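Researcher: Let's run the pair from yesterday's discussion. Sequence first, then tokens, for each.
Model: Starting with the first of the pair.
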Amino acid sequence: GEATLVGSLDKDVIRRVIQGHIGEVKRCYETELEKNPNLAGRVMVRFTIDPSGKVTESAIQESSLNNPPSEGCIRDAVRTWIFPKPQGGKVVVSYPFVLASAPPEATPPAKSK
């Protein structure tokens, strides 16, 4: 997905930090996926990076996942992330996570002789 932001921190820098933490988001999703194998959707997280680079606020802006435990886990994980110090004050970011389980890989049919 594409991040939208208010403030001054390069989108590529934000994306790299998020990708470094993507395992945390996946764990939040996969924990609930075990309970509901059809769980899938898009979660837009809005968060604020303060001048020191810490996330001070994190909220679910919108979600089609409709799974409060997973959404809350993602929101809380984002709140622990550290970014490089932004230029000129705080930065507000909206970032979409698209969550879906991978279909099982098809096993090729056995070759007969």
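Model: Moving on to the second of the pair.
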Amino acid sequence: MRSETLAESLLHEIWKDHSRFLVALPLLSDGTPVKIIHQGDFNDHRGGPDFMNAEIALDGMRIKGDIELHRTVSDWDHHGHSDDKNYSQVILHVVLDADLEELQNAVPKVPVLVLRDNLA
């Protein structure tokens, strides 16, 4: 399955029901375990990130903020989020696919969770 054929709305459904679709303790692209405490409140596209008021734990530290979902890491720039202050509180960028070059060049430097690598 190629990422460009998958609707972002399906990624939203996977994220909403992450305990059903993802492994118990997903790993970020750098290998760090992430605990999803609260997936956030779905933003019915009033502008801004896909999920707001989320909470995750990295290395035992709880972090609150927003979650943005895309098919690829580069979609962040393609959608113009780099210059949009509405995305300044994003704590996790969730993507379906990512290659090493994309991850190394990712902007902003927020943790990336690759769904394909963490499906149950």
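Researcher: Give me one sentence on the second I can quote.
Model: The chain is about 20% helix and 30% strand.
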